[in-house]
User: What shape does this take?
Amino acid sequence: MKYPQLPEAEFTVMQTVWEQEAPISSSQVAELLKPARGWKHQTVYTLLTRLVEKGFLSSEKRGKERYYLPLMEREAYLRQETGRFVETFHKNSLTGLMSALVSTAHIDDADLSELTAWLKEREQGERDDV
Assistant: This one.
């Protein structure tokens, strides 16, 4: 299932939910976001409601509090968004993406060595499958 791209505020809420042990209450999410964002509880509740409507979270009321459980894993969402980014901005060219990363100094020699080792492992795995 493909999920919609999240606006920054909703992604921030999802990051908070993913980082905590589920389920998490709306009050807990609001308290965790308050120092960095200063959002009021109602703002957080609105964002949580949108995430439920979009299928990212499930929600359950327990007494006066509402609790949330992620329905999509963080890694799955990041893979989806990375794929969308590469497709949109680099026309599905891994070489184009890597060139942009290297030219903007986001990848150093250690990163390149790690990537080279990963590519060799992957290539060896493909040979073993044949």
